[in-house]
Amino acid sequence: MRNHGADYLFRRIGLSLALLLLGLTPGWAQNKAIHPKDFPTGRPFSPGILTPDGTLYVAGQIGQDLKTGKVPENFEEEVKLTLDNVGAILKEAGFEFKDSVSVHVYLTDITLFQRMNAVYTTYFPEPRPARTTVGVTKLAAPTARIEITVTAHKRSARSR
Question: Is the same domain home to 8 and 36?
Answer without folding.
Answer: no
